[in-house]
Amino acid sequence: MDFRDTMQKVYSWACQIGNLGLWIIWLLIHFAVDLWYFALHIACAIESYLISSGILKRYKALDIDKLRYLAIVIESEEAYHIPAVIQLLQWLVDIGVKHVCLYDAEGILKKSKESILGKLNNATLFEEAGESNLLLDHKHITLEFASFPDGKEAVAKAANLLFMKYVKLGGSGKIQEEKIFTEAHMSEALRAVGCKGPEPDLLLVYGPVRCHLGFPAWRIRYTEIVHMGRLKSMRYGSLLKAIYKFTMVRQNYGKSSFNYILLLQVVPHVLLKRYERTRDLDRKNESVT
Amino acid sequence: MEKAVGSMLSQIFENLVCLIRKFIFCVLSVAPLPNHIAFIMDGNRRYAKKRGLMEGVGHKVGFLALISMLRCCHELGVRYVTVYAFSIDNFKRSPKEVQSLMELMQEKIDDLIKEESIVNRFGLRIYFIGNLKLLSEPVRLAAEKAMLATAKNSKAVLCICVAYTSTNEIVNAVKESIEEKWDEFCVLNASGAGYGLIKLGGSEGDEREQLIKLIDIEKHLYMAVAPEPDIIIRTSGEIRLSNFLLWQSAVCYLYSPSVLWPEVGFHHFLWAILNFQRNHSYLYKKWKQQ
């Protein structure tokens, strides 16, 4: 009996020691991974310094027109740091980016919309930008603000809109199906609930992990997603490099479609807004008289 | 004699590799592991081109890579695996290529449900995800047969996305939830509850209540059979989701090794897991916030 007890004790000890050993090895492996990332970080910092100081020449020739719409995803906790966001936007203006969508899941940026627009002297809201701005004078930027509810909840709202349409058409049937349930109609419904901006070509993630944190799903079908590291350690050089790399990959993309696509996406939106505004005005007038 | 020694050596080597793998997985499993890994198998055609192989051979080699990834997932104990096999947009490729891909798919599906195949050895339940109506008749039948044949397997789940795009999935989910709601109303109306559909159709104010909830839509997504993915691995160095799991990937680590899909190997898998563990606490926090 005693013998069996001792054996059991020895066995459980061995197990514990084994587990401890596995833990230590795990920690060592992850330490090595951390070291690797640290080295990578240093290398990136040096490269970024070289780029921003202009030593690496090739980054100067940048065909910015290939980047039609840029999205920036910022981790919400870091989005509180508005000066950094403004600095980032200023860099984008300097590089010559024209349309930017700023996203953070909790809507911190949305809330500080006014102060961001106030600090940048050449920025307008994307929704308010008239057609004239589409012709894009240099050093001007349009901004769009988005947050998590503009993704999934907007789809639910759009679904309700489609439901109304479905009810009007009188319920089920093959014809209705084709009339309502297509991706084009879904896009239209999303636009009607105010959550359908253009699809960004490039999405830069400022946060600890490479993931899009719930950027509206409908808009990132073929968007390139690049992880930029944390906002507090952002660098001009790496921003320039990311955009440069994107324009190099997309060399075979036609430029001609640029304004056309944007017009298609923006004009109905603008018209809708204008219609709503005049409607509201009319209502006000009515109530006055 | 030499041959025998050679085969013995290779046998020993194989066992050794197997042992090392087991040990590495043992070490990895002291920390949280992913529950669901998704793969975008990109680069099969480029692989064939690069090696000067016949068209279609790339996909066959790619299938072997898939099997090896499945083995890795099985050994590590990942419960859900999703692969992006064929996008709706792929139907736009040349008819000849689509045809040959369909044939390959049918052949592989039939292989998969054989008694001795990897699916049954690992106890995988297969779901084919996507708009299966778009597939050709024989492939669709094979897919349905495979789903039925593996329905009793319960150790792990393999979701194969064919004729899938995320936007199509969303539209379909919206459609199904609308139809469900409509049926509900019809029943209510018939029983005299008088919900007043006409009034419903008439009111278009912004203040109307949300009849269709987010949860209804999520319930009808094709991918509702699996939890959200923890890692999406896309080969060939690009990080574009290409209309794959857009809805489900909000807090999902995106990993894009620069190799083509047929070249993907154990060390890429390992690197993905290590990165996932590195970022796990953050991703978990975000997931809970959602």
Could you describe the 3D structure shown?
The complex is a heterodimer of chains A (289) and B (290). Chain A is an alpha/beta fold and 289 residues long. Chain A has 3 domains: 55 residues; 168 residues, Decaprenyl diphosphate synthase-like (Undecaprenyl pyrophosphate synthetase, 3-Layer(aba) Sandwich), CATH 3.40.1180.10; 43 residues, no CATH class. Chain A contains 11 helices and 6 strands. The C terminus of chain A is likely disordered. Chain B is α/β, with parallel strands linked by helices and 290 residues long. Chain B has a 6-stranded parallel sheet, sandwiched between helices. In chain B, strand 3, helix 6 and strand 4 form a beta-alpha-beta unit. Chains A and B meet through helix 1, helix 7 and strand 6 of A and helix 1, helix 7, helix 8, helix 9 and strand 6 of B. Chain A: Its EC number is 2.5.1.87. Chain A: Its main location: endoplasmic reticulum.
Looking at this protein, list some descriptive labels:
heterodimer; A: 289 residues; alpha/beta; Undecaprenyl pyrophosphate synthetase; 10% strand; flat; disordered C terminus; B: 290 residues; 10 helices; globular; endoplasmic reticulum (chain A)
CATH names the topology of the largest domain in chain A as Undecaprenyl pyrophosphate synthetase
- Low-confidence region ranges of chain B: 201-207
Major sheet of chain B: order of its strands? 3-4-2-1-5-6
From the spread of the alpha carbons, the general shape of chain A counts as: flat
- Tell me the distance between the termini of chain A: 101 Å
Structural class of chain B: alpha/beta
Query: What is the string of helix and strand elements of chain B?
Result: HEHHEHHEHEHHHEEH
Q: Please state the structural category of chain A.
A: alpha/beta
Annotation, overall tally of beta strands of chain B: 6
| Element-by-element helix/strand order of chain A | HEHHEHHEHEHHHEEHH
- Tell me how many strands of chain A there are: 6
> What is the spatial order of strands in the main beta sheet of chain A?
3-4-2-1-5-6
Major beta-sheet overview of chain B: 6 strands, parallel
Q: Residue share in helices of chain B?
A: 40-55%
CATH architecture of the largest domain in chain A: 3-Layer(aba) Sandwich
Radius of gyration of chain A: 26 Å
What would CATH call the homologous superfamily of the domain at 33-165 and 228-289 in chain B? Decaprenyl diphosphate synthase-like
The name CATH uses for the topology of the domain at 33-165 and 228-289 in chain B is: Undecaprenyl pyrophosphate synthetase
Unreliable parts of chain A: 251-268, 284-289
The span between the termini of chain B is: 65 Å
Keywords (chain A): Endoplasmic reticulum, Magnesium, Membrane, Transferase, Transmembrane, Transmembrane helix
Catalytic activity (chain A): n isopentenyl diphosphate + (2E,6E)-farnesyl diphosphate = a di-trans,poly-cis-polyprenyl diphosphate + n diphosphate
Enzyme class (chain A): transferase
Subcellular location (chain A): Endoplasmic reticulum membrane
